[in-house]
Amino acid sequence: MSILIALLVLGVIIMIHELGHFVAARICKMPISEFAIGMGPEIYSYYTGKTLYSIRAIPIGGFVNIDGMEVESKVRNGFNSKPAYERFFVLFAGVFMNFILAFTIIFGSLMINGKAVQSTKPVVGETLQESKAYKYLKPGDKIEKLNNISIEKWDDIGKALKGNKSKEIPVVIERKGEEMTLDVPLTLVPQREERILGIIPEFTVEKYGLVDGITTSFKTFGNVFVDTVKGLKMLVTGKVKADEISGPVGIVKIVGQASRGGGLVLLWLTAILSINVGIFNLLPFPALDGGRILFVILEMVGIKVNKKLEEKVHMAGMFILFALIIFATANDVFNLTK
């Protein structure tokens, strides 16, 4: 089941990426010979006279064949015959769609699930199991006094405990309409050299407004984007060990673990993976969208590279990418056998 879910997640991410190239090529009126959902043997196809739309047996992503990308191609309105800005638009569109998919998932999740807001009332939401107060204070208890100090709001609890060196403290609570006094033991926090009750306040869920939802979604997207770039930087600079690099098998394992956490966790993982795929494709590496974009940008600033040389560079990059995938997959299998 984990494998099927992983194939579905990766399939959606890659298909959305290819759909971006497809739509952009259509806008630029480039001829497209095929748009496929999935890989491998064809199981269904429909030909419009210009484009073959197909569904293939292996449900992993898909691909789009834009005519005129070959070096010697003479196709009318083909990819290489178009202005540099149109080629840039088509190449960037796949990455853009990955980012749109991720943002849509983040925005939808936030709008549907809302945000957790801490209550200001001095009511126990949860008592930490590792705290000594776990057997004394229950969710729903309203704290009225701590060490004979009246408690009006949640922040008063910290103020009442500040500087307290006692191992236990008298606590007046209201539980199910009944007032009671308990001698509650405090838990020492060595790092801060202070004692705490070890309780968490109640939280309520509030819905996001449209503007607040969009703003928070952009911030969340930005945080994931920055973290992904930092991770890639660590990989390039050698701060990530070779045996920590994960490939397709590792992704299947991660997706499987996420699926056990429920649909929401799986959706968030899909958003994170989509951002990762987008950023990876933007890298200025031969054969990737970023590598092809780099050559287009060079052309736009007046530096034109021989197309045959460019194609050889991309071919070399493709072999390197395949080698990296094989290495990462072997690494995954080795880690599973540990």
UniProtKB/TrEMBL annotation:
Keywords: Hydrolase, Membrane, Metal-binding, Metalloprotease, Protease, Transmembrane, Transmembrane helix, Zinc. It is an enzyme of class 3 (hydrolase). Gene3D superfamilies: 2.30.42.10. InterPro entries: PDZ_sf, Pept_M50_Zn, Peptidase_M50. Residues 6-324 form the Peptidase M50 domain. The chain crosses the membrane at residues 88-112, 263-283, 313-334. GO terms for biological process: proteolysis. It is a multi-pass membrane protein. Its cofactor is Zn(2+). Pfam families: Peptidase_M50 (PF02163). Its EC number is 3.4.24.-. It is found in: Membrane. GO terms for molecular function: metal ion binding; metalloendopeptidase activity. It comes from the Bacteria. One of its GO terms (cellular component) is membrane. Belongs to the peptidase M50B family. NCBIfam families: RIP metalloprotease RseP. This is Zinc metalloprotease.
